């Protein structure tokens, strides 16, 4: 994927990544910059297509400094990662949520695709860490799967908990295709809305200080929102380009 900035639209915003490897590098840099700036709750969203989320997350995890706990939603995923991941550095442990989960002193937490069912426990963990104030270790959410709460039997109270909790995290890296457009954010830069031209190049059409909603996107792009089918085709095309 190639992107360019329009001269009249926040030229400092970096171009979209050319491939998945560059997206992962950008995400690592965004995490590090946010932590250095004092953020203690950060979120990363990268499209994974048919790849395993753990595979996409691995370079980000190895780009962070131990001590660290890499936390999976279930014990099976943690066991597979323990078996398959190469060269797990000293000071990094792979674990899963559950009654026996604990946080070691000073270790960063990296949650891999936390599910909507895990929100309450993850929030409790984060709240306990927040009691440490400025010395609290960072917490990273990678591709949290929290948007399907209404379809998996989570009630209104659970959805409110999810919404309240997710707003406490700074979205330091976000990349998502929307038909022939894309929405992206790379900390510390603003959010950007990108449009694909006839040469399949993405150019920046608008920068914002927040993530745009559907209505804003329609206004920015000057067209109605894509249909579900068109949106999915756009996402698939976007991911094929990212994966090379």
Strand order of the largest sheet: 1-10-9-8-7-2-6-5-3-4
Number of strands: 10
**Shape verdict:** globular
Beta-strand portion reads 15-25%
3D architecture notes:
With 244 residues, the chain is an alpha/beta fold. It has helices spanning 20-36, 53-62, 75-84, 119-130, 156-166, 214-221, 228-243, and strands spanning 3-5, 41-45, 68-72, 92-96, 108-112, 139-142, 170-178, 181-186, 191-196, 202-208. It has a 10-stranded mixed sheet, sandwiched between helices. Residues 5-9 and 224-232 have low confidence and may be disordered.
Summarize the structure.
This protein has 244 residues and is of the alpha/beta class. It has helices at 20-36, 53-62, 75-84, 119-130, 156-166, 214-221, 228-243; strands at 3-5, 41-45, 68-72, 92-96, 108-112, 139-142, 170-178, 181-186, 191-196, 202-208.
List keywords for this structure.
single chain; 244 residues; alpha/beta; ten-stranded mixed β-sheet; 34% helix
Topology, pairings included?
Blueprint: E1 3-5, H1 20-36, E2 41-45, H2 53-62, E3 68-72, H3 75-84, E4 92-96, E5 108-112, H4 119-130, E6 139-142, H5 156-166, E7 170-178, E8 181-186, E9 191-196, E10 202-208, H6 214-221, H7 228-243
Helix pairs in contact: 1-2
